[in-house]
Write a structure and sequence with these properties.
Shape: elongated
Order of helices and strands: HHHEHEEEHEHHEEHHHHEEEHHHHHHHH
Strand content: 5-15%
Largest sheet: 5 strands, antiparallel
Number of helices: 19
Structural class: alpha+beta
Strand order of the largest sheet: 1-5-4-3-2
Helix content: 40-55%
Number of strands: 10
Mean pLDDT: 76
Distance between the termini: 47 Å
Length: about 550
């Protein structure tokens, strides 16, 4: 069964159980009151040493015998006996459990006239139910103790009976309390066990880092998401995500403005890089196997290839340049066949070209012209401005950004946060609000339906607000570090020096609005990422330096061996 299906089952069952919480809370208050009364107000009957010794020897640990429904029915009109007992037709005495004053008030209703058949039958039914719950028989004495019991004086026999009634009822009360606790623990434990099953079926390892993460989407659901974003649908999805009633999406820079030049560019940078090289990862990039799939594969007769259903990781990936002043870039999508890609704003490109750009050469002064030439000539020709030629540092700057965003796609971070937003987070928030309403219901019960309906509406609106504010898809804190580590590997395989990339990082990524705290226009940050916290550039640089040091340590050990 898929993790999402188990979560749906756990959520539905939990909400059914939560609906009984108000009754459970009222019952808990009643039990607490009963325990307090039993420990404070109820006194142990006094007895002589002989009577107490007899009880300890023969009666300690005995429990009262519950009445059957037939026996309870025979006691409806039975005469009362001392000590709140009822005398049955066969001469036995049924005793009541010790209860605080007033607990039996609802059951002891005035007896109606027997001529009123319906009312009398209803009263008998209620009395039978009350007697069945509230009375018990004392068990028979052990046969070996009967002779010693009759040797006691009548007063001591009464003391023994009082001790037996008290301790039997107390033990039964404790048994009922224990059963109630087990019942509550079972009802609470069932959703918890189901939630643990959710974790077990949805857990998987993140490539490269090996972090355990929870994805509550089946392979079919992942395929549907990937298929819905293939081809031109990815571009449409990005435009829809960046479009609001107040602001349209930024215009797209036509492919003819940049793609042809990129494809025809003479890249003289060497492909091979001689220097620090990343060590093999314990968790390489490959189709992601769920924990449940690995369990199936380990069972007798299981498919060893189970877990490879999560298709290709990509590429190819799409790339889109949008005309916007924001110094930002983001990735979006999941899967191969063009179902994922990177969006870059022109503000980022302008900022990269502006940083470290060589000073512009002064234009030559205009040539002097004669009087007649100036009269008959047209406007002076405009100087031809050559397109900017990026330096190696600028190229590395942009490569870091693209590698970082591509790493998010390779590690399927979008899929993880999508699973949390659409499946996990709404269920957790909804259950939490239901639990809060269930706990406060006993206190608001007496305020009437108007107040309770208003509180329910507030809870529903609060749930939607929490989901809208904190349930948006965004990169989590650990995602940024994982993307940085994967980006270092991508840059190294692309021919860049990873150490130079780390040294360049503070001047490149620190300027991106993706990790700045100043508020910017709504579309300066991809709106599905706008409320998520990112680590600081200092934290990320330090983590990457530690990662490079780990590479060096692995290289030194390999050379020593």
């Amino acid at each position: 069964m898929a993790g999402g299906s188990i979560l749906t089952l756990a959520t539905g069952l939990s909400r059914i159980l939560i609906s009984f919480f108000p009754i459970g809370i009222l019952g808990t208050f009643k039990l607490v009151r009963g325990v307090a009364w039993l420990s404070q107000d109820k006194q142990v009957p006094s007895a002589s040493p002989d009577a107490e010794e007899f009880w300890k020897m023969w009666c300690d640990g005995e429990r009262g015998v519950r009445l059957t429904h037939e026996e309870a029915a025979s006691l409806v009109n039975a005469p009362a006996a001392p000590n709140d007992g009822l005398v049955s037709p066969d001469g036995r005495t049924a005793y009541s459990w010790p209860m605080p004053k007033g607990w039996r008030g609802r059951g002891e209703q005035e007896k109606p006239d027997e001529d009123d058949t319906y009312a009398y039958a209803k009263w008998e039914k209620r009395q039978e139910s009350r007697i069945h719950r509230a009375f018990f028989w004392l068990p028979n004495l052990p046969p070996a103790s009967v002779r010693y019991y009759h040797e006691l004086s009548p007063a001591e026999q009464g003391q023994v009976d009082a001790l037996r009634r008290y301790w039997s009822s107390l033990q039964t009360f404790k048994d009922r309390l224990r059963v109630a606790r087990w019942l509550v623990a079972t009802l609470v434990g069932i959703p918890i066990i189901l939630l643990l099953l959710v974790w077990a079926t949805g857990l998987e390892r993140v490539p490269l880092t090996g972090r355990w993460r929870l994805i509550l989407l089946t392979a079919d659901e992942e395929d549907a998401i990937s298929t819905s974003l293939e081809g031109p649908n990815w571009f449409k999805s990005v435009i829809n995500l960046l479009t609001t009633p107040e602001h349209p999406a930024p215009p797209i820079v036509p492919l003819s403005d940049w793609l042809e030049r990129v494809e025809n560019d003479d890249d003289t940078r060497p492909i091979g890089f001689v220097g620090l090289w990343p060590p093999p990862s314990e968790y390489p990039l490959k189709p992601r196997a769920r924990a449940a799939a690995r369990l199936h594969a380990a069972l007798p007769g299981g498919d060893r290839e189970s877990g490879t259903e999560h298709l290709e990781l990509g590429p190819p990936y799409n790339i889109m340049i949008m005309e916007a002043p924001d110094k930002n870039a983001f990735s979006y999508g999941f899967g191969g066949k063009g179902a994922g890609g990177i969006v870059i704003f022109t503000g980022l490109l302008d900022d990269i070209l502006r940083r470290g750009a060589p000073p512009a050469e002064p234009s030559p002064p205009p040539q002097p012209q004669g009087i007649f030439a100036s009269l008959f000539s047209g406007s002076p020709p405009r100087p031809i401005v050559a397109p900017p030629m990026p330096t190696h540092e600028q190229t590395l700057h942009l490569a870091i950004v693209i590698a970082h965003e591509m790493a998010h796609l390779l590690l399927s971070h979008h899929l993880e946060t999508l699973s949390h937003q659409q499946v996990l987070w709404p269920s957790v928030v909804g259950l939490s609000m239901d639990l809060v309403r269930a706990f406060i219901w006993p206190f608001t019960l007496f305020l009437g339906p108007t107040v309770n309906d208003a509180l329910a509406n507030i809870g529903r609106v609060g749930t939607e607000e929490l989901s809208n504010r904190y349930g948006h898809i965004g990169f989590e804190f650990k995602h940024e570090f994982e993307a940085d580590f994967a980006a270092l590997r991508l840059l190294t395989h692309a021919g860049f020096d990873p150490q130079a990339a780390v040294d360049n990082f503070a001047d490149s990524m620190a300027s991106l609005q993706e990790i700045q705290s100043e508020p910017e226009p709504w579309w300066s940050l991809f709106k599905l990422w706008s409320w998520m916290r990112h680590p600081t550039s200092e934290e990320r640089v330090e983590a990457m330096r530690v990662e490079l040091e780990r590479w060096r340590e692995v290289e030194r050990r390999a050379e020593a061996d």
